[in-house]
């Protein structure tokens, strides 16, 4: 099995760039001042850039389909499987939270920024480290951390369903995907839970299984029909994006096009997409505050500032990726990982 899927890497790279620029447009003050240069572009990024999240959801489900499902008995107990996922997510996540909190403290004490989060409480920190902040109603300490919590919920739920015998795992995932698309995703009160997002995630998982099955096109047609019914019941741009993405990946897998490899820079962007997703808010906060302090006016200089913030976000993400790779290794001692996380907690509390 090829470890790298070229089209998936290309999609992750695109989603990584799109989410950073969405937040550049969403959080001021640079985008507010630069907007007169290209109002349509800034408005599009503000409104539609968040669709990158749907790409990440579908890709996560699609990649999970490679390792779980019918004919693939689990190699580890479910709690251990989820625990490993938690640790893998948590190390860069905790480091990014430390950076976000430190930057917010400096910004609040100096130049100021309207989007800087307040000083965290112990309960807020604990909720973030357990990835339940939205479930318990704690204010977020950084943009995008909600997604990490949802990713863990989705992984835990999907891997649990995939432990059902034979084709029952497919039936269970398909049923929950349909329930999410036709009901849960229409209720914004559920948007702190995996039930709200399982529709997009499940489309990716089902498309991955369909494309590798004995009758790929018939199974992909069933996935397509599910999406059509969901969109007919209630049109949602985000579900349409997820549906197209899932079917596209399934079709590429079924035709053998996954062997295509993207340019090295695109593969690099895909590799650092998760760390960039985590760390870019702190970078945007720091650059936006300094830019507004140094140059309070001028569309062109603030458009340049947005470009600087984007470049620094990629560099910070690459650095975080290298750090996390040095800490979380397949044979790393659990005690070392726990010590690193405890140090991060102390740093955040200080």
TrEMBL record:
Q: Which residues cross the membrane?
A: 12-30, 45-65, 86-104, 168-186, 192-210, 217-235, 267-294, 300-320, 332-349
Q: Which residues form the Acyltransferase domain?
A: 8-315
PANTHER family with a match to the protein in the record = O-ACYLTRANSFERASE (PTHR11161), O-ACYLTRANSFERASE LIKE PROTEIN (PTHR11161:SF0)
Q: What is this protein called?
A: Peptidoglycan/LPS O-acetylase OafA/YrhL
Which UniProt keywords are listed? Membrane, Transmembrane, Transmembrane helix
Q: Name one Pfam family in it.
A: Acyl_transf_3
The species is Pseudorhodoferax soli
Q: Which InterPro entries match?
A: Acyl_transf_3_dom, O2_lipid_transport_reg
Keyword GTP-binding applies: no
GO MF, one example:
acyltransferase activity, transferring groups other than amino-acyl groups
């Amino acid at each position: 099995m090829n470890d790298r899927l070229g089209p998936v890497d290309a999609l992750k790279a695109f989603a990584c760039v799109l989410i950073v620029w969405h937040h550049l447009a969403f959080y001021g003050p640079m985008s507010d001042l630069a907007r007169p240069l290209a109002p349509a572009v800034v408005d599009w990024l503000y409104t539609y850039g968040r669709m990158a999240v749907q790409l990440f959801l579908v890709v996560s489900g699609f990649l999970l389909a490679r390792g779980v499902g019918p004919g693939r008995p689990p190699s580890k107990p479910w709690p251990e499987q989820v625990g490993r996922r938690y640790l893998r997510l948590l190390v860069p996540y905790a480091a990014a939270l430390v950076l976000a909190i430190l930057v917010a403290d400096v910004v609040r004490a100096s130049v100021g920024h309207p989007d800087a989060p307040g000083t965290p409480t112990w309960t807020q920190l604990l909720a973030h480290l357990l990835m339940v902040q939205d479930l318990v109603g704690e204010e977020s300490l950084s943009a995008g951390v909600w997604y990490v919590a949802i990713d863990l919920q989705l992984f835990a739920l999907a891997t649990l369903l995939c432990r059902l015998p034979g084709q029952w795992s497919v039936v269970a995932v398909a049923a929950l995907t349909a329930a999410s698309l036709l009901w849960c995703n229409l209720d914004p009160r559920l948007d702190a839970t995996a039930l709200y997002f399982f529709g997009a995630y499940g489309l990716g998982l089902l498309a991955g299984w369909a494309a590798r099955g004995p009758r790929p096109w018939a199974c992909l047609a069933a996935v397509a029909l599910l999406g059509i019914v969901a969109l007919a019941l209630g049109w949602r741009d985000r579900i349409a994006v997820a549906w197209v993405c899932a079917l596209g990946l399934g079709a590429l897998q079924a035709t053998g096009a996954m062997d295509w490899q993207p340019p090295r820079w695109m593969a690099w962007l895909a590799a650092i997409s998760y760390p960039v997703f985590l760390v870019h808010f702190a970078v945007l906060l720091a650059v936006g505050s300094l830019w507004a302090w140094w140059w309070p006016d001028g569309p062109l200089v603030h458009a340049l500032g947005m470009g600087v913030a984007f470049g620094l976000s990629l560099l910070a993400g690459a650095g975080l990726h290298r750090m996390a790779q040095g800490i979380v290794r397949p044979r790393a001692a659990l005690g070392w990982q726990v010590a690193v996380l405890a140090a991060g907690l102390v740093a955040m509390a200080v």
